[in-house]
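I'll show one example:
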Amino acid sequence: MLRLNNLTASVADKTILKKISFNFEKGKIYAVMGPNGSGKSTLASVIAGHPAYAIRHGTIYFNKENITDLEPEKRVQKGIFMTFQSPPSLSGVTIYQLMRYSMQGKKDPVVIRSEVKKYAEKLKVPEILLNRSLNEGFSGGERKKMEVLQAVILDPTLIIFDEIDTGVDIDALKTIAKFIKLMHNKNKTFILITHYNRLLKYLRPDVVLILRNGTIEKTGNMTLANHIEKHGYGS
């Protein structure tokens, strides 16, 4: 599915990721954890092709295709989607309009509207928000739910959830986690970027990666995540 080979990346001439190699398999849920500044969000942004991050060395393969130099839009077309850690607002653009534009030529507008309403209901998003400018005046939980809503409509094969659990209350977290679990299947790979394991308690990742100082320090399963919660990253 997704293979990182000896990946070194920087932002503003500062090296953040250092020689990272890892293979993300199809159909699995991965959690990437680590202290602040460890490189978690940088890793997510580099996979998604964010232009602010420069790959200094190494390669990224997605479904056996080298996408190292591919533009973000092309990566989305190939099935890679990343949720925003801090979702921006779009004045004058509703979720219906955004999804119609994003799925132009792929899905009938009537089908898109029906899907948006159906999934919004499952995510407990008030219908009134669907007709308002996206994220304008929305709470943190509502913004994160809208990110998940976009992900399910776009139907990518690789979704990177960048701190989808921050800025949300426990009820919103449970709703989001339940919905993400329903979204997952054997053809989809999920990467959860997080500081804590409260989201992981609901989703139970197959693999947990610990990033520290821009490298993968440890890999394991929920036992590792529970150990980190109890003892911290320094243990």
Remarks:
- The longest strand covers residues 14-24.
- The two ends are 32 Å apart (CA to CA).
- The mean pLDDT is 92.
- The chain has nine helices and ten strands.
